[in-house]
Amino acid sequence: MEKKINLIVDEKDQNTRVDSFINKYNKEISRTRIKNLILDKNLRINNQIIQDPSKKLSSNDKINIQIPQPKKASLKPYKFNLDIVYEDDDLIVINKPAGIVMHPGAGNYDNTIVNALINYDKKLSYRIGDELRPGIVHRIDKNTSGLVVIAKNNFTHENLSFQFNKHTILRSYQLLIWGKLRPSKGRIENYIRRSSKNRQLMEVSQTKGKKAVTNYETLEFFENKDTPTLSLVECKLETGRTHQIRVHMNYLGNSIVGDDKYKKKFKKIKNVDDELYNLLIGLNRQFLHAKTLGFFHPKKKKEMIFSSKLPLELSNILKKLGKTKKLNH
User: Which residues are known to be catalytic?
Assistant: First the structure.
């Protein structure tokens, strides 16, 4: 059954954004969900459909917003063993493996982290944020592993979303790239937009798109007669754009090992170690891991920082590289 919210703008609320106004007087739904409802043509102001969440209001405006029933068929529980790093009444931090997407989308509505969370805790199917993404505050790619925080109520969802928007969340990734970065340490600041040649890819732009900032540092590089030149890199994000690290590394000419979209062709070096070659070429994911996640807990009012180890398929490559490096020194 659909729910309707009817409000009239008082003089003290004129010039307020409509999404903020609705959120102020109805705390049951988050501002993120209000925004999505507006974009989906569920808002009327003075009986006219408005699709702009930032629309400024005037005194005596009549606000009507419809809240449709969530698409329950799209949120089936999925039996999946979640690696839970931390949990309390307000949020849950998981260590996501590569190979599973965060939330339902085109082509996959059932086998996602969201469906696994609903199987784990039925309360998470309540409308926290977006209908198809309850509790999801940020995402990492399907073939990227690592730490993700999920909100368990609207207050936490709103607060964590605000921290992400203000770029105060600590996020560091470890990655293995082809070649060496020059300079070995630096900051990439530009814009990322959808590729004009392939709509499934993103690309760097100097003028259009969303601002993207990545701070990077080379931790170690591997280079000898038996090893292709590779670098272990740490990236700290100031923004969280789609495919940001992958796009930025590719922009510098150093794609991530195992990346099937932003990839560099690897020609086997004549004397390269066969075991290492097979580990690199056989990797069915990108060597990209969300290693550290830090945020300010909305309810506990304290900073929380979590760290996770590289999964076995990635750490095995580093071990082999380390052994090969020692043999050649």
Answer: 141
